[in-house]
């Protein structure tokens, strides 16, 4: 990503895309706050046609993960970049068109409920009885970088609001 100042505004470039930056009087502010946001935007166009995701490969045992729960429909494993003392992901074992929450259909209701049930079940197993947060990043503006629905479950400390 490149940031270029043009007068009192700026543009950034990702894979040949050009977008205006947010402008504050007298200075330009980066339009994207992090490489994570850039990765999310870059991954978004592949969401429905992408080959197996890293999560598909974890389910297939092609990539190792610290699995803490597994049943016929769901898998929970520790996040490789934890944002809290306890941070794990809950994923459906089959994508079934659920690349993002906004793609859910009535046929997904039982699976979505099961994923939330697994999130609380594992949270209790991880001693998060005093509270935890469940986050679903959806699409590029939600900073989703893997297009296989996943729930982030975080706890083990006082979480603040707003999250960011």
TrEMBL record:
Catalytic-site annotation from UniProt: 150
SUPFAM superfamilies referenced in this protein's UniProt entry, alphabetically: HIT-like (SSF54197)
Name the record gives this protein: HIT domain-containing protein
Organism ancestry: Eukaryota, Viridiplantae, Chlorophyta, core chlorophytes, Chlorophyceae
Motif Histidine triad motif: chain residues: 148-152
Domain of life where this protein originates: Eukaryota
Domain HIT residues, every copy: 54-164
InterPro entries: Histidine_triad_CS, Histidine_triad_HIT, HIT-like, HIT-like_sf
Organism per entry: Volvox africanus
Pfam families, sorted: HIT (PF01230)
CDD domains: PKCI_related
GO molecular function, one term: adenylylsulfatase activity
Family matches, as PROSITE patterns: HIT_1 (PS00892), HIT_2 (PS51084)
PANTHER family recorded: HISTIDINE TRIAD HIT PROTEIN
